[in-house]
Amino acid sequence: MPVRALVGKRLTGVINWHRSRATIHSMAVLDAIIDDIAIHKPDHVALTGDLVNVGYPPEFPVAAARLSPLGTPDHVSIIPGNHDAYVRGSLDAMARVFGPFMCGDDGETGYPYLRVRQNIALIGMNTGVPTAPFFATGTMGRPQGERLARLLQDTRKSGLFRVVMIHHPPLRRGVKFGRGLTDAKSFERILREEGAELVLHGHNHRFSIHHAAGPSGPVPVLGVGSASAVPGTPQHLAEYSLIRLTPGGSQPIRIERRGIGLHDRKVSEIGISVP
Ligand SMILES: [Fe+2]
C-alpha cells in the first residue's frame, strides 16, 4: 500500500498498562483511560507491557477482561513487560491468554513479531525476563537482535513505516540503575545501522521523547506514561499517547497526550508533541 494512504489517518493509540499495584495504580483511572481510547477509535492500539503485577497466572484473565473494550487481536498488539515476566512460567501463562495479541501476521509465536497494518510495520519485542529482587532490568538477547535487524531491513525495502515496540527504555542514557535494558548498546547499534521511524517503550511511567542515531537521521524514541497511575503529581498522571502517523509528511509523527485530571478524573488533552 502506498505511503500516502495513511495521510491524515490516526493509526496508533498507545497505553502502558500497570495493573493494581494498589497504592499507585487505580482500576477506575484505567477504565476512564480505556473509555477515552474507545471514543477516539484509533486504527490500532499498542500496549507496551506490564499488564499485571507479579506474573501470577490468574492475573492474566482479569487483565484480559479489562482490556476487552480495546478490541480484537487484529486491532490490538501487545508486548510483555517485566511484571508480566515476573517469574519463570509467567510469560507462558500470559501467552495462553494473550497469545493472539502477541504474534505476527503469519501466526508464528516468538519475538520480535511483525504485523503490518496499512503501510505501518509493527515490530514487537520481548525484553521481559525474570530478574533478581529489586531489579527491573530487561534484556533483548542476541537472537532477537539479529531478527530485529533483518525485519528492519526487510520492512525498509518494502517501504513501510517501521514502529518498534519494546517495554524497557532502550537507550543507555536517562535510565535509572537497575531499570534499563542490559544490552541497550546492541539495540542502539541496530538502530544506527538499520534505522526505524519510531520506537515506543513503557516501563518508566513517564512520557518522554529521546532520539537515537539512525543511518539517515535521528530516530524518535517515545516513552509512554502509565494508563492507571493514581492522580498525584503532574509528573505521575495516568495518560496515553494518541499518535497520528503521516508517513512521508513534513511532520510524520504527531503525538497527542491525553491524561486524567487531578480533580475531576476526566481525560483530556494535556499536550501536543511533534518529535
Ligand atoms: Fe516495567
Largest sheet: 6 strands, mixed
Helix- and strand-based class?
Answer: alpha/beta
The total number of structural domains is 1
CATH class, named Alpha Beta
Our Rg estimate from Cα atoms comes to 17 Å
Average predicted confidence as pLDDT: 87
Could you spell the SSE succession in H and E letters? Answer: EHEHEHEEHEHEEEEEE
What is the helix tally?
5
* Shape type: globular
Bound molecules: fe (ii) ion
Strand content: 15-25%
CATH topology: Purple Acid Phosphatase, chain A, domain 2
Q: Under the CATH scheme, which architecture would be assigned?
A: 4-Layer Sandwich
Distance from first to last alpha carbon: 25 Å
The count of DSSP E runs of length 2 or more, i.e. the number of strands, is 12
The CATH H-level homologous superfamily: Metallo-dependent phosphatases
Amount of helix? 10-25%
| Order of the strands making up the biggest sheet | 3-2-1-10-11-12
Weakly predicted, low-confidence segments: 1-13, 16-20
Description:
- The protein has about 280 residues and is α/β, with parallel strands linked by helices.
- It is built from 5 helices and 12 strands.
- Helix content is about 20%, strand content about 25%.
- Mean pLDDT is about 85; it is low at about 1-15 and about 15-20.
- Helix 5 (about 185-195) links the parallel strand 6 (about 160-165) and strand 7.
- A 6-stranded mixed beta sheet has the order 3-2-1-10-11-12.
- The protein has a single domain (about 5-275), classed as Metallo-dependent phosphatases (Purple Acid Phosphatase, chain A, domain 2).
- It is globular and about 45 Å long.
- Fe (ii) ion binds near residues 50, 81, 82, 83 and 136.
